[in-house]
Amino acid sequence: MPYKYFSYNGKILQIDKAVVPVSNIEYSYGFGVYETIRVSNNVIYFLEDHSQRLIDSAQIISLEHSFSESFVRQSIQELVKKSDAGTYNLKLLLIGGPTKSEASLYILCLSPFFPDRKLYKNGASFITYNYERAFPHAKTLNMLQSYMAYRKARENNSYDALLVNRRGYITEGSRTNFFCVNKNKIVSPLEDDILLGVMRKVVLKVAIQNGIEIICKDIRPSDIKNYEAAFVTSTSSKIIPVKSIDNVPIGPLSPTLEMLINKCNQFLSSCSDGKMC
Questions:
Q1: Beta strands in 20-165 (DSSP E)
Q2: Pick among 3.60.20.10, 3.40.47.10, 3.40.50.410, 3.20.10.10: CATH of 119-271
Q3: pLDDT tens digits for 143-172?
Q4: Where does residue 3 fall: left (phi above 0), alpha (psi -120 to 50 degrees), or beta otherwise?
Q5: What is the β-pairing status of strands 238-245 and 160-164?
Q6: 17, 18, 63, 228: which could join 6 in a potential S-S bond, CB 3.0 to 4.6 Å?
Q7: Which of 252, 131, 136, 132 is nearest to 194 (CA)?
Q8: Is it true that domain 5-110 has CATH number 3.30.470.10?
Q9: Is the pTM of this model over 0.90?
Q10: For the chain, how big is the Rg over CA atoms in Å?
Q11: pLDDT for 252-266, tens place per residue?
């Protein structure tokens, strides 16, 4: 659906004013960071986590700007109040400039991505793709290789591509975090190698609350056969079970993963009573 408004440096403007000049070399070169935030019935999910990570990402790539975390949060809340648009995603773009004062903050309303509901029960297919991001903890606009990985996955009728680093280990998806499951344990790639996703943080919190052990270790594609199940997480899709990786079947569900999905859904539903998660 079309949205009427966006936020530019804290000002609410008509959406037809949402432009970036083609002469903006910082944008052309990907010198910026971004976030995607879920909004449902005017409830902003994990506002503090997303706004903090936006600021942290900018610091990681030495992008100087004049926006405080509280200013980012306030700008988001004002746009959500003005839009009153139901369920959608917010896209935050913090683009660098030649000087600190010339950095720009765009906040846009976008239609959410809803995966096929069958994937939550039957699982999704994945491929592997050799690539590692330069700044694992930053969500930067330098997305060319991730885009190519995702396109390759779609060409192979797969949901996403799992990135494999130069040491031969799976790190994350092109737009998801990755986990394996064994009995009452979930296994994550090493945190130094991945984006610390907000939905990933939710999953870890819910897992610990329900007595599931968390292990961080290297995972090779050849290790997948040793696990009962695997899954990916993202803001838009929550938890998607893995059905196969490079045509090698796994899962898609195990008792631990089914329980984790149910508990995470319950936790997210508890956020919809008007309070901010």
A1: 32-40, 43-44, 87-95, 104-110, 124-130, 160-164
A2: 3.20.10.10
A3: 999 999 999 999 999 999 999 999 999 999
A4: beta
A5: unpaired
A6: 18
A7: 136
A8: yes
A9: yes
A10: 19
A11: 889 999 999 999 999
